[in-house]
Amino acid sequence: DHRDLHSFPTRRSSDLGKETFYAACHSCHPNGNAGIAPKSIPRDQEPSYYARYIREGDGLGAVLSGVDPNAYQYKKGRFMPFFGADRLSNEQIRDIIAYIKSLPPTP
């Protein structure tokens, strides 16, 4: 349930989100752009879009948690890891989303 991740981002959460983003996401998504990840992170999605990908990755999180046994979608040569509540709190995810939304449009 990602409803509590939809709160309005603040400047402070964007600053905290940058720190968390660099710790958890930057190695595959440098500065929110393409890297190991085949394309840049879109900047125009709703918070629930980001929350779902952070929590479920390519769907493996939903499979392992028993939410949806058919959720995992293997994409050749790619894997988006999932970050369960044991790795990132809802507040940290809100902060990451605020940071992503503060980035300039993708090139």
* Beta-strand residue fraction: under 5%
How many strands, which pairing sense, and closed or not: the largest β-sheet?
A: none
Count of DSSP strands: 0
Helix coverage percent: 25-40%
Structure explained in plain terms:
With 107 residues, this protein is mostly helical. Helices cover 39% and strands 0% of the residues. The protein contains four helices and no strands. Helix 1 crosses helix 4 (90-102).
Layout of secondary structure:
Blueprint (H helix, E strand, L loop, with lengths): L10 H14 L22 H10 L3 H5 L25 H13 L5
Keywords for this entry:
107 residues, mainly alpha, 39% helix, 0% strand
Summed up:
With 107 residues, the protein is mainly alpha-helical.
